[in-house]
Amino acid sequence: MKIGFSAEDEAFRQEVADWLAEHLRGPFESLRFRGGPGDEHMFPEERKAWERELARGGWIGLGWPSAYGGRALSISQQVIFYEEYARAGGPGRMGHIGEGLIGPTLVAFGSDEQRARFLPGILEGREFWCQGYSEPGAGSDLAAVKTRAHFDEALGKWLINGQKVWTSLAHESDWCFVLARTEPESRGHHGLSFLLVPMDQPGVSVQPIQQITGTSEFNEVFFDDAQTDASCMIGAPGDGWKIAMALLGFERGVSTLGQQMQFHNELDEVIRLARSNGAATDPLIRQRLAQAWAGLRVLRYNSLRMLSGPQDGSLRREATIYKLAWSTWHAELGKLAMDVLGPQAEILDGGPYALSRLQSLFLFTRADTIYGGSNEIQRNIIAERALGMPREPRVQ
């Protein structure tokens, strides 16, 4: 595991910091520290414009191979970019799903034609993606998906029917990658395929889900004979589970360090508040602040250990604990923020639902241990896949 950075890396760090300081100004000044978890509904058009600004600066596709338009930067330099981006208050990325998930998946599994069609739109910050995995009856148990697709020979297209849920920013997306069952009567991991589906068509409808924060960045997506071309399947029919799992491996990549820097910013805000309102004089609060600080360092070192392995979508054993670790840490930070706020945690600044940043943090972190795989499921994954323990009995 590499913890330190070379002189060349530090020179790159300065380059990133300088560029961000120069460009997160003027029309983009208002985006600083906005658009993150719990705030993703804010400034969508401005953040899309920011993606194009990043593209002009060459800051999209940093780890992609140069043959596909990327910069092929080292893991160290990618980590530095994400850390400095979060440190500078770079806004939540509208292009994260495209750059971090479907882009590397296309590089690894797509055809030359698919790469030529889809990668430039991501690299140029002009096409945006959402993820069609979870369903009402298939959240943490992804293998239970019921959305189905069949190939219509007359049309030469796949027709998709079903429902996806918790689809972040579906209402702002141009494309959705959809895990669908293409083999009738198949069950579990078998008979699934990985399809790229255009969102702007009559067969796709998007319905927002209002959350406890009062915002609606998540959506339900309904497919009613939605169409996509035969050329929009990645891999062969039945390869969907393999490709979907590789994509989740890419999700636990270098951007995890940027996520942790955002957590660091939140912790700093809680510490500043504790000092200003006197909560830091409480020994129990001070102990919890110290535990939060130490826990964040543990997350960082485990991520560096996780990133020391191959970046091909395969998951090292260390990677299996990451979702459980960060979600638990972040949920505890939300509770700590409320305790530091004290009575102010119960008061809104105005109507109808004007949450402060820390109030929104608390409410949003209630979902951290559920979405993306609940903590209960994550513990099963650690036990069964990482430690090789006997599988939990399944109810037939």
Give a verbal description of the structure:
Residues 130-225 form the Acyl-CoA oxidase/dehydrogenase middle domain. This is Acyl-CoA dehydrogenase. Its cofactor is FAD. Residues 238-386 form the Acyl-CoA dehydrogenase/oxidase C-terminal domain. Helices cover 43% and strands 12% of the residues. It has 396 residues and is an alpha+beta fold. The chain folds into three domains: 7-94, Butyryl-Coa Dehydrogenase, subunit A, domain 1 (Orthogonal Bundle); 129-238, Butyryl-CoA Dehydrogenase, subunit A, domain 2, CATH 2.40.110; 252-386, Butyryl-CoA Dehydrogenase, subunit A, domain 3 (Up-down Bundle). It is globular, with a radius of gyration of 21 Å. The protein starts with 6 loop residues before the first helix and ends in a 10-residue tail after the last helix.
Properties at a glance:
11 helices; 396 residues; Butyryl-Coa Dehydrogenase, subunit A, domain 1; oxidoreductase; alpha+beta; FAD; 4-stranded antiparallel β-sheet; Butyryl-CoA Dehydrogenase, subunit A, domain 3; Butyryl-CoA Dehydrogenase, subunit A, domain 2
Q: What's the CATH first level of the largest domain? A: Mainly Alpha
Count of domain modules: 3
Content-based structural category: alpha+beta
Order of helices and strands: HHHHHEEEEEEEEHHHHHH
| Average pLDDT | 91
CATH architecture of the largest domain: Up-down Bundle
Oligomer: single chain
Distance between the termini: 43 Å
- How helical, in percent, are the residues? 40-55%
The counted number of beta strands is 8
Instruction: Report low-confidence residues grouped into runs of 5 or more.
Output: none
Instruction: Please tell me what the overall shape is.
Output: globular
Q: Enumerate how many helices there are, as a single number.
A: 11
Give the DSSP E fraction (strand runs of 2 or more residues): 5-15%
CATH superfamily of the largest domain: Butyryl-CoA Dehydrogenase, subunit A, domain 3
Protein name: Acyl-CoA dehydrogenase
Domain Acyl-CoA oxidase/dehydrogenase middle: 130-225
Domain Acyl-CoA dehydrogenase/oxidase C-terminal: 238-386
Keywords: FAD, Flavoprotein, Oxidoreductase
